[in-house]
Amino acid sequence: MEHITLLLAIVVVTALVFDFTNGFHDTANAMATTISTGALKPKTAVAMSAVLNLVGAFLSVEVAKTISGGIINEEGIRTEVIFAALVGAILWNLLTWLLGLPSSSSHALFGGLIGAAVMSAGWSAVNGSTIVTKVLIPAVAAPLVAGLAAMAATKLTYKIKAKPEAKATAKGYRAGQIASAGLVSLAHGTNDAQKTMGIITLALVTQGVVAPGSNPPMWVIVSAGVAIAAGTYLGGWRIIRTMGKGLTDLQPQQGFAAQTSAATVILASSHLGFSLSTTQSCSGAVMGAGLGRKGGVVRWSTATRMFAAWGLTLPAAGLVGAGAEFLTKQGPWGIAATAVLLVSGSAVIWALSRRKPVDHHNVTADDLDEPAGVVTTAIAAVTPPPAAGSVAAVTDEDLKTTIPAPVPTDPTAPPAPAATV
């Protein structure tokens, strides 16, 4: 570490900040369904997830090698490019967290890296085949595979379950859900912590600290694992609320099916070196589990916003990364300006989040301001008014009924006025 310069130190710290945002942005992947079904209390869930994310960071380096030596050509890439890429990824992560959208931290990092590299050295700096095979194809396939697997598992679960109301069975599924949530957390640490390891290793390569193609040094693995675990413990409550309550209403059986399916997809992809989005895998599994239960529904208005965020992540982070790289190319003042942009943008987003805070106290509340979907709105627009003689809505005025006064016993007494209630 004796060769680390001030710029490289700034890049390493910024990468760990991204890893921290990745942790709280993606806590929902493992724990949203566990919290929403009541299998674990919110703070207990995020603490468990943080520990397992840390453990998972030490299990593999295949994804890190894909990032450090596969997505962009290492030769001719300056350290400033890595810094610019991280700026784009962090700002997009914070923006989608503010909106409560479970977008991909991985794709934010890839987008920022691609945009900064293209701005620095042109399109030749990007390995298109690696992006297609190890980023884009898994981005499409992972949520579909996880969703179909979760839907099939949910259907099977409800078929073999003899008594849906049995408390012992529900308790068993909650225990299974806790175990599967732990598996997702382990898988998340194995996949996502490696992305920061890869980006730091790439920065070390640009400075000649390590040789191209090297595995991440141990201090990189440890620091990345600790950063993502700390972010996970903070808890991305906004996104947990969206995935746990905003997409669909899950029962313990569905939560177990969703988490097991997502963990299987993530671990298999990590073994193959595919740098997929754990967020997309888990979101697809949640929707599949929602559709797998008879009478279950998916809130497609929320899902549509989530799909839009998925599609925008790569290009949006890429544009910010390219703009940041344009600034860093101007020299020291440009690097300083980029740092100011990152800090001020993060501060603004944080201040906006305080207007309507979401934390472990209200993460499972049912007061989601969920707008009506397109189909619901269209049906309401064409619904005919009630026919004559049908029961109409009751208002306060309708409750004011005239009741005849009782007949007086004294025939000489004057009639009493009618009473109104």
Description:
This protein is mainly α and 421 residues long. The chain contains 15 helices and two strands. It has helices at 6-25, 27-36, 42-56, 62-69, 79-99, 105-121, 128-160, 167-206, 218-234, 237-246, 252-272, 278-292, 300-328, 332-353, 374-382, and strands spanning 402-403, 419-420. A two-stranded antiparallel sheet has the order 1-2. Helix 2 (27-36) runs parallel beside helix 12. The model is unreliable at 368-405 (pLDDT under 50).
What key attributes describe this structure?
single chain, 421 residues, mainly alpha, two-stranded antiparallel sheet, 15 helices, 2 strands, 68% helix, 1% strand, globular
Short description:
This protein is mainly alpha-helical. The protein is 68% helix and 1% strand.
Topology:
Blueprint: H1 6-25, H2 27-36, H3 42-56, H4 62-69, H5 79-99, H6 105-121, H7 128-160, H8 167-206, H9 218-234, H10 237-246, H11 252-272, H12 278-292, H13 300-328, H14 332-353, H15 374-382, E1 402-403, E2 419-420
Antiparallel strand pairs: 1-2
Q: State the separation between the terminal residues, measured CA to CA.
A: 85 Å
- The residue-averaged pLDDT reads 77
Largest sheet entry: 2 strands, antiparallel
The coarse overall form would be globular
Low-confidence runs of at least 5 consecutive residues: 368-405
Order of helices and strands: HHHHHHHHHHHHHHHEE
Structural class: mainly alpha
